[in-house]
Fold these 2 entries.
Entry 1:
Amino acid sequence: MDFFVSEVSEQEIRREREKSRELRRSRWWQNRLALGRCHWCGGSFHADELTMDHVIPLSRGGKGSRNNVVPACKQCNSNKKYLLPMEWEQYLNSLENRSTSQ
Ligand SMILES: [Zn+2]
């Protein structure tokens, strides 16, 4: 599946964003936050410190559905936003190396 080929309309993004908002209010999401784990770095955080992150960004055709949202700490969330996809890969690799060398 190639996310770069398909154009995502503003309307679709808005619809998925609305679904994400509903998901954020769901018990399912509250339970995930209560686990207190960042999906990306695996760190433990207070539920207040975790935000909803889309694995595939809505702008790239990602959905506001359960299998596309993960809890992320603020650092990972902002890194994901501002890094290029390649830099983000490197960031994840560095997290992986850190956990295997412990
Ligand atoms: Zn994190």
Entry 2:
Amino acid sequence: MTAPVPEEASFFAAVGGEPTFRRLVDKFYEGVARDPLLRPMYPEEDLGPAADRLTLFLMQYWGGPNTYSATRGHPRLRMRHAPFRVGPAERDAWLTHMRAAVDSLALPGPHRTALWEYLERAAYFLVNTMDPTEPAH
Ligand code: HEM
């Protein structure tokens, strides 16, 4: 077991903790709610629970509390996205809304860059089909 990183030292704390991640994800889901490609991918009528999962995951990733894993288990994000068709179009739509959300936070440059580069890399990593006609597996 490694010692937990003190919260003061984490990116999580530096950007303002949970309220910042809530604002990020709420803004992102405002975009998803209006997106004709992404909105139908979310099985639940209420996007609130999905927003909560993404918020808790991002908080944990950046050094905040481990509530995500305590409630959902190991993230295994590629596996959890396997039921959905994530092609280049879905990735780009996702990133468009996330970009607007990141920009809305008006973080200091280095924090904004670190957050954005991570999200962009993660979105490319989660693409699971290059075929625009292939159904989800
Ligand atoms: C590339 C485009 C992406 C698409 C189209 C997409 C789509 C989805 C969908 C439809 C869900 C199910 C909704 C739910 O019930 O939670 C989901 C869940 C989730 N996504 Fe994504 N996603 C994408 C990228 C990402 C990225 C980049 C991350 C992380 C940085 C991420 C993190 C998550 C998490 C944490 C969950 C909840 C997993 C769980 O605990 O069940 N997604 N995503």
